[in-house]
Every structure is written in structure tokens, then in C-alpha cells.
């Protein structure tokens, strides 16, 4: 991750960049990534919803392609797939 920012690219592609981290480390790295990503187009691929909850736009992919699209708040308001996944996360259910 550090090497990417040394190159100062206008577009970032982060594919499961924090997947191997524990929750506390993910938060710290995520905060740093948010600061370093300012002014750049950033595409983040993640399975952990906490990794993407602050994204401007979230795409929920299913077997047929894009199933839902919106911000965290918009997707929660739709009460669809993302809503069910998020509620499973906050209620402690295994997803």
C-alpha cells in the first residue's frame, strides 16, 4: 500500500487491502487510506462492509451483476441486500 502512494497515482485500485488485518488495525489503516486517497478516484473491492461504509458510492454485486447501488445511508434506506448484510453484521450474525 505504501508503494502506491509514493507513485502518487490519480486512480487507486484497492482489492481487499485490509482483509488480513484485525478490526483495530483495519480501522487505523482505513483512516490513513482515507486521508491519502483524498483527491483521487478510488475503487475498493471488499467483503467487509466496514471497509466500504464511508465510500461515496457502493455497488452490491450478485450473480447477475450489480444488484444495488448507492451510499451506505441510501442502501440502508432501500432495505435490500446491503441492509440485510449490514444488520447481520451489527447483530453479530455470521454472514
Short structural summary:
This protein has helices at about 1-5, 25-35, 50, 70-80, 80-90, and strands spanning about 10-15, 40-45, 60, 65-70. It has about 100 residues and is α+β, with helices and mostly antiparallel strands. It folds into two domains: about 1-55, no CATH class; about 55-95, no CATH class.
Short descriptors:
95 residues, alpha+beta, 4 strands, 43% helix, globular
Number of helices: 5
Largest sheet: 2 strands, parallel
Beta content comes to 15-25%
Shape: globular
Secondary structure class reads alpha+beta
Radius of gyration from the alpha-carbon trace, in angstroms: 14 Å
Mean pLDDT: 83
Distance between the termini: 27 Å
H/E topology pattern: HEHEHEEHH
Strand order of the largest sheet: 1-2
Any low-confidence stretches, pLDDT <50, length ≥5? none
Tell me the helix content: 40-55%
The domain tally reads 2
Please give the number of β-strands: 4
Can you tell me about this structure?
It contains five helices and four strands; from the N terminus they run H-E-H-E-H-E-E-H-H. It has helices at residues 2-7, 23-36, 49-52, 72-78, 81-90, and strands at 11-15, 41-45, 58-62, 65-70. The two termini are 27 Å apart. The chain is of the alpha+beta class and 95 residues long. The chain has two domains: 1-55, no CATH class; 56-95, no CATH class. The strands form two sheets. The protein has a two-stranded parallel ribbon with strand order 1-2. It has a two-stranded antiparallel ribbon with strand order 3-4. It is globular, with a radius of gyration of 14 Å.
